[in-house]
Amino acid sequence: MDAKKIEQLTKKADQIGKLDTKQVMTWCDGCGNYGIQNALKRAIVLENIEQQKLLQCFDIGCVGNESDKVECYTIHGLHGRVLPLAVGAKIANPELTVIASAGDGGTFSEGVNHLVHAVRNDYPILFLLHDNENYALTTGQATATTPKGQVRNGTPDGVAQDPLNPLQFVLSLGPSFVAQTLSANVNHMTEVFQKALRHKGFAFVEILQTCPTYNKQCPNEWYAERVFEVEKLKNYDCRDIWQARKIVAETGKFPIGVIYENLQKKNFLETVPHREKRKTTLIEEVAHTDITKFLGKL
Question: Which pTM was predicted?
Answer without folding.
Answer: 0.94
